[in-house]
Input
Amino acid sequence: MKVGIIGAGFVGSTTAYTLAVKNLAGEIVLVDINKDKAEAESLDVLHAAAFNAGCKVYQGGYPDLKGAGIVIITVDSHKALTDSRMALLESNTKIMQSIIPQIVENAPESIILIATNPVDVITKIVLDISHFPRERVIGSGTVLDTARFRSMLSEYFNVSPRSIHAYVMGEHGSSSLVSWSTATIGGSDIKEYAARLKRPLNEDFKKQTAQDVIDVGFKIYHGKKATYYGIASSLVSICEAIIKDEQRDLTVSTLHSEVAGVKDVCLSLPTIVDHLGAHDAAVPSLNNEEMSALRHSAEVLKQASSEAESLLK
Output
């Protein structure tokens, strides 16, 4: 499959590299306003891919997106990330106004995959501008947050994260829901599993872990002024589910007609991802406290989306 990547910065180039070395894409085109940077990154990835089966990797413009099955948006305004991804809303909304029409013109049958923050709101903006079917506009959502949650539980319980099923839902941001009531390890309820290991889950541990899931991205950013390995791996996992038609359950961000009483909002829920895109999302059986938290997250995103939509007028 041909994959287009808009933005040749840390996230875009790392995503291209990972797609190439995993032999997931036969052709990758990097599009960036800085053509020299895009060309340098594409050459570097091309040479790395030569150690495997190899794939075609090159710098191009929007017309070179023709035939792309997936177009990944990683570009942003390079505004400093402080304590909220929402601070990026206005500048990145304006960027979408510029680039989305060009994607629609040149790759009208593609699936658009978005990493640009605030990702849930930007996903809604991309839908509004592109008029693509909702299943073909996908935000990276809380796929990375979910991986971080499972990684933390893996360390605590000394068990592979592949044996852990636990979700982060709602916003990719401060109002996200870290769900404990739906978490299982090896098919067992996480509380039962913890009790067997004599490592009961007290409220302080759960609150701290949930906060760490939210804060760790900022910790990484402030330590190295960027985050890219985790988000690139998340994007590639989503691409793999699409390319291989995996029908995989991922917490991507998509448009929902209604979530917890809030209508027409983009946020993350467990969702099936395959060659059609993202579909058949479902709210798990949450307890009352978690359902209230999901509603709050939906309300936060609905308000932010309303603000962003006013910028399009």
Q: What stands out?
A: The mean pLDDT is 94. Residues 154 and 161 are 5 Å apart (CA to CA). DSSP finds nine helices and 16 strands in the chain. The radius of gyration is 19 Å.
